[in-house]
Q: What sequence folds into this?
């Protein structure tokens, strides 16, 4: 493929990567290192097969004897599920048998499972029940270089657990730039000695002492007198070279440039699917529609072969996400428009061309306002390398970067770790539940900012999860940690029996535990490109479910109609423009949350002996009061111009177009989440509340000013 064949605005990079060798060549050496060292850092290029092949090597080498399981963690749910499907196919079993996966609210494993893929957050939750993770012989933390907050917390736990379980093998899959850092992190635990493990629970005190001594006696020594904890191995994997090309000058609109680039690749380049990285659903849907319109308008673009545009982002259902992995029809080229979920672990066969917009949406939490937003920011060099690595799997590939080479050279080496820009409340709560009371001295891979830690402790204290000494309260704090929802919703669920609305709150919790930015309303997922008549029809349908009090009660109405009138059928959803997959998932999530509550002894009628001073109120009022007990920190007041301001008054907020409150008036509202799009900050899942409830249910958080 000649560079001149591609878009004229692109120029080739100065350096091209060399061809590399497959992972199978390193099998014996890898297994030897894992046998010898407690910790092995695997540096593997995209496409080396580390995610799919290493677990199989380990299982064949006998690491699943005595009923033990090999765990492989992923930062993202879609990666855990798709890789499990791929490995199950290679092993020759159905998913859920010898190979399975577990993600939040979905467990596809059995007693026969020997290789288990899961999110790193789920493995942390397992540690609440089994603090030493004793069922696992090997734990592989994949894509650790992404530095998700769950990955960082998990690394800290594994560093502690390793001292109590010398037989445990830990494999860290890392990008080249951070391999030495990961090894130094685990080596530092040896110097810390038993101080690093004193706050990890052990199932049996006697065995833990024996294991710690055995660890000290059996540690390898490199001759310097210091234990040799681990080793680094580099796996070469990409078979074909990749040409990296850059824009000669910056693009004014990278979405338009991406569309143009895709069409020129389709016209000029040989066979091979195209993967385009954009930042979010709106851009992806705009690009999908833009390509479809251009192809239909220009017959020459589809004269020889069709072009099939497909979206891929977290808000899609599992079935919709799987479309991108299916082979394209004959004489058809796929073009997949994806967010960064396609950067790592997820391999889409047939991709030869990658188009990288150079940006990504990252969550950023502002501790002063308490608002978490999605902000578009430049990718790092590490992320750019991951994206480029998606090409060249079956033949020489090309990566076209929609930015200049000078811009690339100015990028940060790696993304800012999520732990330095996130709401830490859920993770502080989990650490406390694991028996780690001094969360400030936990061995974080990268220490979180003091402001984020302070804000997390303040919120958990206000929710009643922590006492005056910052210790986990019992039973409230412990139960909040066990529930698989974020702390605000956990508090709301646990308060529901006091208000006589547990059944309703279980439904609301399930309906708001959605993936990404997905919506129960189908019309919110078509990019807003509807005619006036179509919008009016959608509005008429929505009014059937609308509750004057706001979105939470509207979601409750939708669910109840789905399971009663609709009998859980897809036809009902199609007639009412509802997301069938999301509602099916909500039924499953609700059932699991209900089992948690039953285990706590908090059933629907379990609060009959508790005083309920609000019994005079309607059911809708009870639900709104209950929501206030958990979401008092997410409150705003409507202004005369129709916008909202948070209590501190420093943030201007707008009702999201998908919200029932978009065209309605209210005084005070609480909201479930906030998102930033362009120059506006939107709040959605909103419900009307009374100001006095804030003082009633959150006296430690709010006070009146004189």
A:
């Amino acid at each position: 493929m000649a560079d001149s064949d591609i878009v004229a605005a692109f120029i080739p990079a100065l350096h091209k990567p060399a061809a590399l060798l497959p992972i199978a060549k390193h099998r014996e050496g890898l297994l030897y290192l894992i046998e010898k060292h407690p910790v092995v850092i695997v540096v593997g290029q995209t496409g080396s097969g580390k995610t799919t092949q290493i677990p199989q090597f380990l299982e064949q080498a006998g690491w699943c004897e005595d009923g033990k399981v090999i765990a492989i963690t992923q930062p993202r749910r879609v990666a855990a599920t798709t890789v499990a499907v791929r490995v199950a196919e290679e092993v020759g079993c159905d998913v859920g048998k010898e190979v399975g996966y577990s993600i939040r609210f979905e467990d596809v494993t059995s007693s026969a499972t020997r290789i288990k893929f899961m999110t790193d957050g789920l493995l942390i939750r397992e540690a609440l029940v089994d603090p030493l993770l004793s069922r696992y012989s090997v734990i592989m933390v994949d894509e650790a270089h992404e530095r998700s907050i769950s990955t960082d917390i998990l690394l800290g736990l594994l560093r502690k657990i390793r001292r109590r379980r010398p037989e445990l093998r830990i494999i860290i899959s890392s990008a080249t730039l951070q391999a030495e850092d990961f090894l130094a992190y685990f080596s530092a635990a040896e110097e810390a000695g038993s101080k690093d493990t004193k706050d990890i629970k052990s199932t049996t005190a006697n065995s833990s002492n024996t294991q710690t001594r055995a660890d000290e006696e059996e540690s390898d020594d490199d001759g310097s007198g210091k234990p040799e904890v681990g080793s680094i191995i580099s796996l070469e994997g990409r078979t074909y070279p990749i040409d990296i090309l850059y824009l000669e000058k910056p693009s004014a609109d990278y979405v338009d440039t991406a569309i143009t680039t895709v069409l020129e690749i389709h016209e000029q380049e040989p066979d091979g699917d195209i993967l385009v990285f954009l930042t979010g659903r709106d851009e992806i849907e705009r690009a999908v529609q833009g390509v479809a319109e251009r192809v239909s308008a220009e017959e020459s673009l589809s004269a020889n072969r069709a072009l099939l545009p497909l979206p891929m982002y977290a808000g899609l259902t599992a079935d919709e996400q799987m479309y991108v992995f299916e082979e394209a029809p004959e004489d058809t080229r796929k073009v997949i428009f994806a967010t960064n979920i396609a950067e790592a672990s997820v391999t889409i066969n047939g991709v030869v061309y990658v188009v990288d917009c150079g940006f990504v949406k990252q969550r950023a939490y502002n501790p002063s306002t308490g608002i978490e937003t999605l902000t578009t920011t430049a990718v790092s060099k590490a992320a750019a390398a991951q994206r480029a690595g998606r090409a060249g799997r079956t033949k020489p590939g090309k990566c076209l970067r929609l930015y200049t080479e000078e811009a690339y050279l100015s990028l940060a080496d790696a993304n800012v770790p999520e732990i330095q820009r996130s709401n830490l409340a859920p993770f502080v709560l989990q650490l406390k539940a694991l028996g780690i009371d001094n969360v400030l001295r936990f061995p974080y891979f990268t220490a979180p900012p003091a402001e984020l830690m302070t804000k997390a402790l303040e919120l958990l204290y206000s929710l009643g999860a922590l006492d005056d000494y910052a210790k986990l309260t019992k039973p409230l704090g412990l139960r909040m940690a066990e529930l698989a929802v974020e702390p605000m919703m956990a508090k709301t669920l646990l308060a529901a029996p006091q208000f006589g609305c547990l059944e309703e709150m279980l439904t609301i919790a399930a309906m708001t535990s959605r993936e990404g930015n997905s919506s129960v309303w189908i019309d919110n997922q078509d990019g807003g490109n509807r005619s006036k008549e179509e919008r009016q029809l959608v509005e008429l349908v929505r009014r059937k479910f609308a509750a004057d009090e706001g979105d939470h009660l509207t979601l409750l109405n939708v669910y109840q109609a789905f399971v009663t009138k609709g009998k859980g059928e897809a036809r009902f959803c199609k007639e009412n423009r509802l997301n069938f997959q999301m509602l099916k998932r909500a039924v499953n999530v609700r059932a699991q949350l209900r089992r948690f509550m039953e285990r706590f002894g908090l059933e629907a009628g379990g609060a009959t002996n508790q005083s309920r001073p609000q019994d005079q109120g309607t059911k809708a009022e009870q639900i709104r009061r209950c929501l206030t007990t958990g979401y008092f920190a997410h409150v705003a007041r409507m202004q005369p111009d129709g916008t909202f301001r948070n209590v501190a008054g420093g943030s201007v907020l707008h009702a999201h177009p998908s919200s029932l409150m978009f065209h309605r008036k209210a005084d005070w509202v609480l909201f479930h989440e906030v998102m930033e799009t362009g120059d506006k900050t939107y709040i959605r899942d909103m419900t009307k509340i009374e100001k006095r409830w804030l003082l009633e249910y959150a006296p430690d958080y709010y006070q009146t000013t004189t």
